[in-house]
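Purpose: get a first structural picture of the assembly so the mutagenesis plan has something to point at.
Setup: two entries, given in the order below. No constraints added.
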Amino acid sequence: DVKVTQSSRYLVKRTGEKVFLECVQDMDHENMFWYRQDPGLGLRLIYFSYDVKMKEKGDIPEGYSVSREKKERFSLILESASTNQTSMYLCASSSGAGYGYTFGSGTRLTVV
Amino acid sequence: QKEVEQDPGPLSVPEGAIVSLNCTYSNSAFQYFMWYRQYSRKGPELLMYTYSSGNKEDGRFTAQVDKSSKYISLFIRDSQPSDSATYLCAMSAMGRAGSYQLTFGKGTKLSVIP
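Result (structure tokens, whole complex):
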């Protein structure tokens, strides 16, 4: 089974800090995704990547950037964390086939 | 109109009940239809997927797709407290770079009461 590993389960950061969320997958998947999940809003796509060094904006990219230097690793960067970025962040990967993504366990980020 | 509509619930049923979860969609380009289960403070996990209209059964779970009505369902028989979770429907269509991209419903929170 594909494993998608997110480096932290819980993070608490201060407003204005630069925050790095790391995601690693072990099945040579081409595609990787970052979502945030908030009550009542569902999953919202922040950024995705179809290949190394490739990135595409999702629905809510403002305030975020990403990096994909290696195929297995996709990082989400909050350049200057703000309280409205407090959320559950989920990384996912896929082979590109139609039948779904594999998600990591999520990182619960609190910005104070 | 949102591409995928899903009633957020919450839905509360007694143990042993049959549960019906539903989604409607508007995009005819969707080809694969999935159900994810998400336990509290965990990531979603793929429960079932189907490609065409019809039914697919896996143990106590049955996924049903009606493409003509743009309607999908997940049935859970003999529901158990361990089924308590949020269930998200998802659908995929070919996106850029020749890969499928998923569109998710917002999820229905289910509680099965012992």
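The CA atoms of residues 60 and 109 of chain B lie 18 Å apart.
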